[in-house]
Amino acid sequence: MSKEIISGGEALMRSLINEGVDTVFGYPGGSIMPVFDAMYDHRDDFRQVLVRHEQGAVHAAQGYARSSGKVGVTIVTSGPGATNTLTGISDAMLDSTPIVVIAGQVGCAVLGTDAFQEIDFVGITQPITKWSYQIRRPEDVAWAVARAFYIARTGRPGPVVLDFTKNAQTAMTEFEPACVDSVRSYIPYPTPCRKAVEEAAALINNAERPFMIVGQGIELGEAHEELKAFAEKANIPVGKTLLGLSAFPSDHPLCTGMLGMHGNYGPNYNTNQCDLLIAVGMRFSDRVTGNVATYAKQAKVIHIDIDHAEINKNVTVDVPIVGDCKEVLPMLTELVEKRDHSKWIESFSELNAIEYEKVGAKALHPDGGPLLMGEVARKVSEASNNSAILVTDVGQNQMMSSRYFKYTLPRSILTSGGLGTMGYGLPAAIGAKMAMPERTVCLFTGDGGFQMNIQELGTIMEQGTAVKMILLNNNYLGNVRQWQELFFDHRYSWTPMLNPDYSMIANGYGIPSRLVIEREELDEAIREMLSSPGPYLLHVAIKEEANVMPMTPPGATVSEMIFE
Asked: What's the whole-model pTM score?
């Protein structure tokens, strides 16, 4: 039986359907127009979301991917359409987010001639992707798409780019769906070394003050239950990275809080007191380690990660275990002994109590004065039964909302960690809500980050996406201002902001909004926002020169946190 003859553009559509794609974020243009024409006939096969900027398309795909565990998809045109995606692709690479970005390209006949909107997109993206490939023939479409999705979602996930020449979109080919389940020299799930696991178990069984730090790898590997079983049997306290905050429930008795520059005092201080540090599914970034020369020097270190490149990259480890945490953790659980570390665990609570007295009480229950970021975040979290997906932008709003939100369900925090991308929040929240319509999605953003991709309010308007947006407005680029206050003698260079009337902007997009200035209005405004059936902008005027504390100053050791 002869195979059906179809265009390369149609082959792409059928290949996406074959991969189970149900949502595509994109923006059309000349070099990708045949694909969008083919997409017209597939309006019932998957949701086609017209964003307002290509950067927004990638961040939306990231939000979709990180909240659902699926691969996010973006389709854009060549030239500026392609280059506008670079920030999102870089962000996805650093935060291990599985996305496939498909960009149009000029036809093969004019490649290398600097044709209109030609750019070497493969060359540009090779350093910031797991795989970057140019499709020059329609017969390669099915294979390239299948390979792209396989690479993006397996092992340590990440972004993949397909550069799709225009001639390959229009030319005809026989079509047969492709399936890729292996790539030569690519080992996404390395087999854990049994000897290393046994060595790690021996260290754990002999440790008096073990401490486990976990990251997003738990979420990506869906190892939540495996982590809980291991931690409970070995009775080990657990600290979490920013991206790993929902990997372990906030209310679990072994949960000690967040690590890092603006993390909790207990886990940061005790990193330099433990005799064994167990890192699972996280990388030792500078925001976690502080001064790496003084980081956990007294402790033996076990590092479990699926990516061998992270082992010994920043912190020298005693027992490396390269493997999927979902596989490694049960192996460890089988070998570890039940222990009682109650006195050691209590020390975290004592340290966090100091933090609460010096910082938390004032942040959550102020005596008066302007509204504070912390109290807003905690009230929104509690009003949503601590079960909402928190999406943040970058800056003070990110640190305060992530610190004071509570997490009871997996995949409940979406934020830009490694790249720190302002403008990430709004489009990522759109993608998250589209992926998980049954969950409440709360975006916390500042006046700076909100304006970086504010045009995506148009996407919300068009799609009716029920994102709850909490704009924490301090009329400053707050995080930079804080550093200027602490380290640059209060020289507020280019950080004060003159802001527009955000209610008028929301009204222009048909989005209900409310401005809250007085504390007495806040609870009712939050109830109104959460009960609204569609999108909502809660604009909160907060204290202008408030700081995120505690803080590990740049270059300091993690145990040397400042509280004011």
From this structure: 0.97
